[in-house]
Inverse folding.
């Protein structure tokens, strides 16, 4: 069985065991799905979400309300996007990632497995003194597996964050960041090309 509250484009496949357009309040709008969609079993996507063309999930993906997705996006198994998130085109988010509210992700971005973004600077403290704000990830960024990004920072265009890095401050464009302390270095020449998956070439050539 599956539950659908959606405006659906052409060539969309939603497997059994999905909820697509979960009605979280009485006056919410149906999810809008573009063309060539693949949503795999166990996934739950709320109403008030807009998704472009060529979108697919792994299994057991959660996407909350007021999120907006461009074209050519993959969300890996067991990843959570907690709502109020904007994502550009040609983005791959691997399995077991957490994307909190109030995050902006540009185009041609890669987010490796197990990456955690955060949006709450002082969890459950001083709740009346600031608003949650997640990271901004600019175009062409690659983030290796197991990284942690703290609230409110910006990862500059084209930067490469090595696996396991904790990023606690803004990263200038075209930087290479590594280590538990987030050491910032110039981007090596071989990493300066913009992200390009093989299946993107026919659209971006």
């Amino acid at each position: 069985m599956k539950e659908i509250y959606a405006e659906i484009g052409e060539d969309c496949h939603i497997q059994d065991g999905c909820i697509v357009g979960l009605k979280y309040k009485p006056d919410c709008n149906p999810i809008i799905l573009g063309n060539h969609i693949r949503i795999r079993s166990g996934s739950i996507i709320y109403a008030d979400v807009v998704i472009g063309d060529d979108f697919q999930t792994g299994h057991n993906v959660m996407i909350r309300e007021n999120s907006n997705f461009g074209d050519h996006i993959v969300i890996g198994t067991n990843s959570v996007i907690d709502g109020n998130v904007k994502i550009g085109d040609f983005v791959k988010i691997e399995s077991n990632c957490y994307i909190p509210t109030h995050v902006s992700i540009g185009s041609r971005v890669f987010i490796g497995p197990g990456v955690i973004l955060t949006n709450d600077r002082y969890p459950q403290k001083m709740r009346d003194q600031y608003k949650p704000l997640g990271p901004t990830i600019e175009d062409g960024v690659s983030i290796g597996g197991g990284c942690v990004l703290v609230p409110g920072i910006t990862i500059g265009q084209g930067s490469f964050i090595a696996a396991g890095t904790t990023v606690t401050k803004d990263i200038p464009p075209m930087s290479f960041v590594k280590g538990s302390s987030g050491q910032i270095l110039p981007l090596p020449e071989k990493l300066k090309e913009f992200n390009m998956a093989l299946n993107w070439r026919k659209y971006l050539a």
About this structure: The longest strand covers residues 19-22. The radius of gyration is 17 Å.
